[in-house]
Fold this protein.
Amino acid sequence: MTLKMHCSFMAGLFLISCLSQLDRDSGIIGGLADDTATACNEANEDCDDSNCGGGARTMLAGSDCLGCHGQEQIVSESLLFSAAGTVFIDLDGSEPASAAIIRLTDAGGQVIELTSNSVGNFYTDTALEFPIQAEVENDRETTTMTTQPETGSCNDCHACSGTAGGKLSTP
């Protein structure tokens, strides 16, 4: 995927991430060769109970949380999430971003503030009115998502091949 493609998906990305993303195919950043370019980590997108480890709050980091914790799949109301995902330090998902603040404002004006855990996971069972506005904050700055998602399934779009062009990441 090229820088041009990443920016064409800017509507689904956090703006700052798009502006700093490298060319994944050629390892070029701003026209200069980069020997440290890495590939997006797809391994954590195909998680199940046998291969990603963890349990409860740290389970299956990087996988589509609402794939199991969504309305259609859930067997217990206590495990139903309205929004959930995993925050990484970069679009490639090279390592989790713990203690990031995820701020969701729903269409009714309700604000939910979540903190990512040690594996970058965050989730809420609070009922949300979609679409929502989403922000990610680290200790330096806050980045606001440029679109308003119609679903709380963050890792569905924020995947290596997802419409957001990469993992959910901190600014």
About this structure: DSSP finds four helices and eight strands in the chain. Residues 70 and 160 are 21 Å apart (CA to CA).
